[in-house]
Amino acid sequence: MIDQELARLRTHRRNIQRYRNLLQTNLTELERQFVEKRLIEEQSNLDSLVTSLPQ
Hints:
The protein is built from two helices and no strands. The protein is mainly alpha-helical. The longest helix is centred in the C-terminal third of the chain and has 24 residues, at about 30-50.
């Protein structure tokens, strides 16, 4: 169970970093809006996962 949670944490962190990197490239406004939305969703998912982990 813990291995799955750690894998999910890593996946969210990688996705967040990928989206941040994309935002530093030349995107159309529509692409930028999509990436920003996905970044917010990934960050929210990561925050929820972190708060649900046992202390």
